[in-house]
């Protein structure tokens, strides 16, 4: 099976895990702090602003709490997003207000976001679809001008940037995902970035039960009763650990080679599929934009999209679509929303296999089988 997503793990990661085993310290410790510092350097921010957590989803939920979202607040987010974003907003009692997206890029423009703003809008939660920055600069400027908090769901955008500024650093809070299907993987895990230093300190405290000291051992050096609890507010346990941080540190070092290979695969798809009738390729990146190349998507007639996906699966090629529109989820109470760009994208878009482990001959196989299926299914439509 040619998988749509697949991690790249090898001897370096295994050696890093072995070192952790030999240290006999698996929990939150020195490797976690080192990973946070290295990732902060990658972003160009202070290490105190980054917190290694157990998932980007946990970061989404914590971010809504940090920004004080709750009943009476509206939060604007694209409907073409992962369900974790909608859940994180709705769980606070705030109202998710879904905005439309460009049907070709699947990212919202500043105009899409602005049209969805209400007098009760307290935050915007922006996704970078497929690892492309989208209109983040204009959206961030609009939010600042209006006094609206911006959360960047940068789960897919670990290497994305605009004019050298990394995605995730434009807003007030951001998170990245390191789960098994991402580019940089730790098995499960994520990183949280908080712009305001005081809020970042609070986030670190809230990520570990609300405790001022995350370790009794470290507290023993400064207190004669290091076991005493110092809890200012209720938190939870969502911190990362040295085992996964060791893997993440190696993966971060390898990230440039991963992205370079994914870019090469994207360019290969562009060449192989540019003349396929009935298939629309992803748009070119705007000047100054750098992508993580997490998704490669094609678009076709909605009447054949599902059939093409089934044909490819029969040939051992797994494709998918992300993300099903959130405004169609009954739990959010927004099923009557009119978002034509999102609906069009959801019915016509198919994600092709894209990961750094893909061989050139596999890319050609995917392209050839897609070409054959689209021609066959398209011909059936005209009969």
Automatic annotation (TrEMBL):
Its cofactor is pyridoxal 5'-phosphate. Signal peptide: none annotated. The modification N6-(pyridoxal phosphate)lysine is found at residue 182. GO terms for molecular function: pyridoxal phosphate binding; transaminase activity. The keyword Kinase does not apply. GO terms for biological process: polysaccharide biosynthetic process. InterPro entries: DegT/StrS_aminotransferase (IPR000653), PyrdxlP-dep_Trfase (IPR015424), PyrdxlP-dep_Trfase_major (IPR015421), PyrdxlP-dep_Trfase_small (IPR015422). It comes from the Bacteria. Keywords: Aminotransferase, Pyridoxal phosphate, Transferase. The active site is at 182 (proton acceptor). The keyword DNA damage does not apply. Belongs to the DegT/DnrJ/EryC1 family. L-glutamine:2-deoxy-scyllo-inosose/scyllo-inosose aminotransferase subfamily. This is Aminotransferase. It comes from Streptomyces zhaozhouensis.
């Amino acid at each position: 099976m040619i998988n749509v997503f697949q991690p790249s793990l090898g001897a370096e990661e295994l050696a890093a895990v072995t070192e952790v085993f030999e240290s006999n310290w698996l929990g939150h410790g020195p490797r976690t702090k080192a990973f946070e510092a290295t990732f902060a350097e990658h972003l160009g921010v202070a290490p105190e602003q980054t917190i290694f957590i157990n998932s980007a989803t946990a970061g989404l939920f914590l971010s809504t709490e940090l920004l004080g979202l709750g009943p009476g607040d509206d939060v604007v987010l694209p409907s073409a997003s992962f369900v974790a974003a909608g859940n994180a907003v709705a769980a606070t009692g705030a109202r998710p207000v879904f905005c439309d997206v460009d049907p070709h890029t699947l990212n919202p423009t500043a105009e899409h976001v602005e049209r969805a703003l209400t007098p009760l809008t307290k935050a915007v939660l922006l996704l970078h679809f497929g690892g492309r920055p989208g209109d983040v600069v204009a959206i961030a400027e609009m939010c600042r001008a209006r006094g609206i908090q911006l959360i960047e769901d940068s789960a897919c955008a670990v290497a994305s940037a605009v004019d050298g500024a990394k995605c995730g650093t434009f807003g007030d809070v951001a998170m990245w995902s390191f789960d098994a299907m991402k580019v940089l993987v730790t098995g499960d895990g994520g990183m949280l970035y908080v712009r305001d230093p005081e809020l970042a300190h609070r986030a670190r405290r809230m990520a570990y039960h609300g405790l001022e000291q995350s370790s009794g051992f470290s507290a023993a050096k400064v207190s004669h009763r290091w076991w005493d609890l110092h809890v200012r507010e209720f938190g939870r346990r969502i911190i990362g650990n040295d085992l996964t941080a060791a893997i993440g540190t190696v993966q971060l070092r390898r990230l440039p080679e991963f992205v370079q290979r994914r870019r090469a695969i994207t360019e290969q798809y562009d060449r192989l599929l540019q003349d396929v009738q009935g298939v629309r390729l992803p748009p070119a990146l705007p000047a100054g934009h750098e992508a993580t190349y997490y998704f490669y998507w094609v678009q076709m007639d909605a009447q054949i999209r599902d059939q093409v996906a089934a044909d490819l699966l029969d040939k051992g090629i797994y494709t998918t679509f992300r993300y099903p529109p959130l405004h169609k989820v009954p739990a959010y109470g927004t099923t009557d929303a009119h978002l034509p760009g999102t609906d069009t994208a959801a019915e016509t878009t198919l994600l092709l296999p894209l990961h750094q482990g893909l061989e050139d001959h596999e890319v050609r196989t995917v392209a050839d089988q897609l070409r054959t299926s689209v021609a066959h299914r398209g011909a059936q439509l005209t009969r």
